[in-house]
Design brief:
The protein is of the alpha+beta class and about 675 residues long. It folds into four domains: about 15-250, Alpha-Beta Barrel (TIM Barrel); about 275-400, Beta-Lactamase (2-Layer Sandwich), CATH 3.30.450; about 405-525, PAS domain (Beta-Lactamase, 2-Layer Sandwich); about 545-660, PAS domain (Beta-Lactamase), CATH 3.30.450.20. Helix content is about 35%, strand content about 25%. The strands form four sheets. The chain has an eight-stranded mixed β-barrel, surrounded by four helices. It is elongated and about 110 Å long. The chain binds guanosine-5'-monophosphate (G) (2 copies) and manganese (II) ion.
């Protein structure tokens, strides 16, 4: 190839030979197109298509890079007429340009001429651009932000300097360098590095996009690590503008995530909970679904996280759950839960289902579970998974079981507590109920016989009630049934009906005796109990971030979890005020000390809105300090007013340590690469 000089490039610009190619950017979870990266190509009349690495640095040295960008922007915006307005364009900006004070004006000009909205434009800058003139970089980026333009840090992880500057510039997006994506295929260690890079992005509140995705396995892994967006040959190579239409008309650029399962299982990082990918939305969903055993399932019904309690109930360690499908891990549970989960994935929240678990208790008894399934939604109100809550009510059931042990015992109980006694013929056709039934329900007692009782049972309880009775008729076992019954005033009330068979000498059933009990109050109390503080505490304990909740407006601490105590390295006492814990103070990343109202938790309580994530250097009483990333959300009482706030604390010191390992590893990889190069020199 003949070498190219300034003159060639200058003429090429005149002849409009520098053209944009477009590479699709997608949402990893769905494979849906979100925009394009614009990549320059030189359509040389003789040499054919010349890639940017052959002329971008020439353009930079020749002072023509500004013109290249002008041409690329002009042509890209012109092609954008076929691109739906929901899609963005990402354009690469050379490090040199980012130092140029003219840059914002040029870009604004190009936007105006092309009639392209600033908020649809993302500028990609590499790390080296930022190092030597931070002041100009900051001025330019502030200007660009005022135009609605977003900034992405390109090739993230390949340079050293940026980590210091990363927080000082208003980046919106991190583009994780393709080298991390490639290395993920190799070892568990490399996956940890990729996880740390994605995690770092999150802890700084940036969206993350992974470059160079070539296989579905890489995509799946990145999704698990919490990376939201991707780019690479799996979704499409850069194409000229006349091929844009074909890409846009496809609904998804990737096979559904379901179709690949070979990356799952053993090759996954053992404990994704340890990653700082817990977003507040998810956390909120966990709280909302409250009670005791908890897990979060994604749309493929895979465990994204699970708390200790539920793992125990399932009889499988936490780590074995993560990333696995319910159907693979617990086929027996899946039988019961699948319909509920599916409905939740369609947006329906369901609670209060009482089922018998296929998993037995340690001493072999059967478990009764109270289940709740809540859809969890992202900011766009799309269902991203299901928050599952499970309460083990076996203890209560076991007590009832004991009561059933002997008929004698049972009859005593009936006599002591004769709410609504009833008797029935052996086949359950003729039923006599005490007159107190009429008083409670308004339904005439004579209406009960000949299956008449089924007419007043709640439709949702009907199937279960019928099955229970026919099972008892078959086996002669004790009947124990909780069901809703319609009173003549139209109200539903919860009743519990228990009965046992009286047998003749030959063991044949001759008659049923039983009693009904009004349990409406108890059911309501149970519901209130579910929301109780004790249960919430169990949730707090299980969440892998520090949590502190405080009451509004007093600031009195309601609860905290061990992770929070670990971060602060001091006990947190419920009756204290949050202000007691601020005496030692904290420092903003720019060195300013925190004022009492700066703290995200205070902010959330004062403003009623999510505050943070904010990074702060917390000064401990013992003189040590630690970096924390804090995000706070208000919670509201029944009346809709802010009742308090809860703050999630991430230990970013740990993230920084991981980052350090990462940098060392990169250094090592580079050394290895250099060595390989040296050894593979041709002999001449
Ligand atoms: O596909 P590819 O070979 O196109 O891109 C190689 C590199 O060239 C990319 O990393 C990108 O940053 C850079 N590049 C592509 N187009 C442009 C451009 O218009 N301006 C600048 N400054 N760099 C570009
Ligand atoms: O700006 P940046 O360096 O990120 O540009 C992306 C570069 O990576 C371009 O050269 C583009 O052609 C290239 N690229 C995009 N997707 C893939 C991919 O899946 N595999 C490989 N090997 N290169 C890719
Ligand atoms: Mn780029």
């Amino acid at each position: 190839m003949a070498s190219l000089n300034r003159q060639d490039l200058s003429e090429a610009l005149e002849r409009d030979e520098i053209v944009p190619y477009f590479q699709p950017l997608v949402e990893l979870r769905t494979g849906k197109l979100t925009g394009f990266e614009v990549l320059a190509r030189w359509k040389h009349p003789i040499q054919g298509l010349i890639p940017p690495d052959k002329f971008i640095s020439l353009a930079e040295h020749a002072g023509l890079i500004g013109k290249v960008t002008d041409n690329i922007l002009r042509r890209a915006f012109a092609s954008a007429s076929v691109i739906p307005s929901s899609l963005s364009l990402s354009v690469n900006i050379s490090p040199l340009q980012f130092r140029d004070r003219e840059l914002p004006v040029r870009i604004e000009d190009a936007l105006n001429r092309g009639g392209f909205a600033g908020h649809r434009l993302i500028l990609e800058v590499t790390e080296s651009a930022l190092v030597d003139n931070m002041r100009q970089a900051r001025t330019s980026s502030e200007w660009l932000k005022r135009l609605g333009i977003r900034l992405a840090l390109d090739d993230f992880g390949t340079g050293y300097s940026s980590l210091r500057h990363l927080q000082s510039l208003p980046f919106d997006e991190l583009k994780v360098d393709a080298s991390f994506v490639r290395s993920m295929d190799h070892t568990r260690e490399s996956r940890k590095i990729a996880a740390a890079v994605v995690g770092l992005g999150h802890s700084l509140g940036l969206t993350t996009l992974a470059e160079g995705i070539e296989t579905q396995a890489q995509a799946e892994m990145l999704l698990w690590l919490g990376c939201e967006f991707g780019q690479g040959w799996l979704y499409g190579r850069p194409v000229p503008d006349d091929e844009l239409q074909a890409i846009i008309s496809r609904t998804s650029l990737a096979p559904a995530m379901e179709s690949v399962s070979d990356v799952g299982q053993g090759s996954l990082p053992a404990n994704l909970e340890a990653l700082p990918m817990q977003r507040l939305a998810q956390l909120q969903a966990i709280y909302d679904g409250a009670p005791v055993g908890l897990c979060f399932l994604d749309t493929q019904m895979r465990y994204i996280n699970i708390n200790r309690r539920l793992a125990e109930m399932n009889g499988t360690p936490i780590a074995d759950h993560i990333g696995r499908r319910v159907s693979d891990l617990h086929p027996d549970l899946y039988q019961i839960a699948a319909p509920y989960i599916r409905r939740a994935l369609q947006g329906e929240s369901q609670s209060g289902m009482e089922v018998t678990s296929p998993k037995s208790t340690p001493d072999g008894g059967h478990r009764t579970l109270l289940l709740s399934y809540q859809p969890a939604r992202d900011e766009a109100d799309e269902v991203i998974g299901v928050s599952v809550a499970v309460v083990d009510i076996s203890a209560r059931k076991a007590a009832e079981e004991a009561l059933k042990q002997s008929e004698e015992h049972y009859r005593n109980a009936v006599e002591l507590n004769p709410h609504i006694p009833w008797t029935a013929s052996a086949d359950f056709i003729e039923i006599d109920v005490s007159p107190s039934w009429l008083k409670l329900t308004g339904v005439p007692t004579e209406n009960i016989s000949h299956h008449g009782w089924l007419d007043v049972v709640h439709p949702e309880d009907l199937e279960r009630a019928k099955n229970a009775v026919s099972a008892c008729l078959r086996t002669g076992d004790l009947l124990d049934l909780e069901l809703r019954v319609r009173r003549t005033d139209g109200e539903w009330i919860w009743l519990r009906s228990r009965g046992s068979a009286r047998r003749d000498g030959a063991g044949n059933i001759i008659r049923w005796y039983g009693s009904m009990e009004d349990i409406d109050d108890r059911k309501k109390t149970e519901e209130a109990l579910q929301a109780s503080e004790a249960l919430l505490k169990a949730v707090f304990k299980a969440v892998p971030v520090g949590i502190v909740a405080a009451e509004a407006p007093s600031g009195q601490i309601l609860m905290s979890n061990p992770q929070a105590e670990k971060i602060f390295q001091r006990p947190i006492i419920s009756a204290d005020k949050i202000s007691d814990y601020r005496k030692t103070g904290a420092i903003h990343p720019d060195g300013r000390p925190y004022q009492p109202d700066d703290y995200p938790l205070t902010q959330a309580i004062l403003t009623g809105e999510i505050a943070g994530p904010a990074e702060l250097l917390y000064l401990r009483e013992d003189g040590s300090d630690t970096w924390i990333s804090a995000t706070a959300a208000p919670f509201r009482g029944q009346d809709g007013n802010v009742a308090g706030g809860v703050v999630a604390l991430l230990d970013v010191d740990a993230v920084k340590r991981e980052k350090h390992t990462l940098l060392e590893r990169i250094g090592e990889l580079e050394r290895q690469l250099e060595e390989t190069r040296q050894h593979s020199k041709p002999i001449c």
